[in-house]
Design brief:
mainly alpha, Serine Threonine Protein Phosphatase 5, Tetratricopeptide repeat, Rossmann fold, 5-stranded parallel beta sheet, 26 helices, 5 strands, globular
Length: 535
């Protein structure tokens, strides 16, 4: 009987003493001498993957398959290992071979689906995940598939799967929470409210649920059931807990809808103060980041020009980025990918590799694939993550032909709108004190001015006030900036909105919010100290 643990320990020690090649040779000789069975090859390949040696696992799996070509699990591990070392074409071949023999092999489905997603082939990934799901899947697999669909930004099939799950477990609070959030993204607000109430009844600590419930409609009377539910949560949930803070942001929104700003303001202050203690955002740290970006030369582009025009919509949050993207996406030659989180991650990946050309090329290919995807081609593709302004130097290197739309808004209006939100991402930790919002906004202003000076990237200044007052003319100017041909017919509105503007984005374009900040001045007098424009 082969002692797998001993062989793996000997391999690990050999790597440190002799190098990986010699250690692998010794492992292979010892294994052959022991007359291994299929299970021995499999156990050692799995052990090598656990040790973080996928390249060696590939070599060993190929050696084992030469002796046992019908070993399904060994072939699966080979495909998985190939994926981990970036040999995607070979990995896909092996994983599809596994699925040809066993179409519902959970591991092969998951590995291949993640490979396809990483290549931007989201439709293929979703189709694979859904087709491989058994008619009566076990609960864990169903939840894993739902999580994957949500990662792929496909709200409609994900909601259908969540509803299928709820037929099996009608009282599952976590599944009601997922269904509620997905229904919100699709603009099905009444359906969302039903699921969110069920989720919060089962899990009052589900913090996003309170925010979503408040955002799902405009409150007209204080005695509405959802308003009573949120007010009760404020009384019951600890003020410093995540759910308690979320309930207070939600209650402030309810009160603001009812024009009870004298009540809303102190609730909003308390919620922001509690959140600020947890966020621990540093104005000095952000200033250091801005200075470093301004002192560092942007990397040189290594990618070829793309078959589409990549466009980043950037600026402070709550300055009209969602509205701009939705209006642009009505043009049939525009695709809106929403708020992608790839740029900051890829910038870190490139910088930690000392900007090696290979890393730049890898990052450029990955970002382009996530933008292009496998749906119908388009002339213009949008990434509307507003915080991408931090890394425009890297974006210009990764995306040849890049154009930027810089959203701007009256500083007092944008500060108030940010202050009223509880953001999900830690990058928005500045949002909970007006002084921090001002510091962040000044840094954004300086950095955008810097990018204009050093990057050969066209930038369109999009003023929110003009977008909502002169929508047609502003949209025509944007089309001209992006070299878009006149549209014979607008495409249907996109399906999904995931930002804090989920409710507002689905309303008709209006000017109601332009001067809304003035009504808050008696209750938040600090707004008066903010200039009309950041500088």
């Amino acid at each position: 009987m082969i002692d797998h643990a001993a062989l793996l320990a000997r391999f690990r020690a050999g790597v440190q003493q002799q190098g990986i090649g010699a250690a692998y040779g010794a492992l292979l000789r010892a294994l052959r001498a022991a007359l291994p069975q299929t299970g021995d090859w499999l156990a050692l390949v799995q052990g090598l993957l656990q040790q973080g040696a996928p390249g060696v696992a590939v070599a060993l799996a190929e050696e084992g398959l030469a002796r046992h070509p019908d070993a399904l699990e060994l072939r699966y591990q080979l495909g998985n290992a190939l994926r981990l070392i970036g040999e995607n074409q070979a990995a896909e071949r092996e994983l599809r071979a596994v699925l040809a023999m066993q179409p519902q092999h959970a591991g092969a489905v998951a590995s291949l689906a993640h490979l396809l997603r990483g290549e931007g082939r989201l439709q293929a990934a979703v189709q694979l995940a859904l087709e491989a799901l058994p008619a009566l899947p076990e609960w864990a697999r169903l939840r894993d598939t739902l999580a994957f669909l949500r990662e792929c930004d496909v709200a409609r099939p994900a909601l259908e799967l969540a509803q299928r799950a709820l037929q099996l477990a009608p009282d599952d609070g976590e599944m009601h929470a997922a269904a509620g959030e997905l229904a919100m993204e699709l603009g099905r607000f009444e359906q969302a409210r039903v699921h969110l109430r069920r989720a919060l009844a089962a899990q009052p600590g589900f913090a996003p649920g309170w925010l979503r419930l408040a955002a799902a409609h405009t409150f007209e009377v204080r005695d509405e059931p959802d308003a009573r539910l949120i007010e009760q949560a404020v009384r019951m949930l600890p003020a410093d807990s995540e759910a308690g803070i979320a309930a207070r942001f939600a209650w402030a929104k309810v009160l603001a809808d009812l024009d009870a700003l004298h009540e809303a303001a102190p609730v909003l202050r308390a919620a922001n103060a509690a959140m600020s203690l947890q966020a621990q955002w540093s104005a000095r740290g952000f200033e250091t980041f801005v200075r470093r970006q301004m002192e560092t030369m942007p990397p040189v582009a290594v990618a070829q020009r793309l078959p589409f025009t990549p466009v980043l919509i950037v600026g402070l949050p709550r300055t009209g980025t969602t509205l701009a993207a939705r209006l642009l996406a009505r043009h049939p030659q525009v695709r809106n990918r929403g708020e992608l989180n790839w740029l900051a991650q890829l910038a870190l990946h490139v910088e930690t590799g000392a900007r090696a050309p290979a890393r730049l090329a890898e990052a450029a290919a990955l970002y382009a694939a996530q933008l292009r995807r496998d749906d119908a081609p388009a002339q213009v593709i949008l990434d509307k993550n507003p915080l991408n302004f931090r890394h425009l130097g890297m974006a210009a290197a990764l995306l040849p032909g890049l154009r930027v739309i810089h959203c701007r808004r009256d500083a007092r209006a944008s500060a108030l709108s940010i202050f009223r939100q509880m953001f999900a991402h830690e990058d928005n930790g500045y949002a909970y004190a007006l002084t921090d919002i001002a510091a962040f906004a000044r840094g954004e202003h300086r950095l955008m001015a810097h990018w204009r000076n050093v990057l050969p990237v066209p930038v369109f200044d999009l003023h929110y006030e003009r977008l909502v007052s002169e929508t047609g003319a502003t949209l025509a100017a944007l089309h001209a900036f992006l070299d878009l041909p006149p549209a014979v017919q607008d495409a249907p509105d996109e399906d999904v909105v995931r930002t804090a503007s989920v409710w507002q984005a689905r309303q008709k374009v209006h000017r109601h919010a332009l001067q809304q900040w003035r009504a808050w001045l008696p209750h938040l007098p600090e707004l008066e100290t903010i200039p009309e424009a950041w500088a």
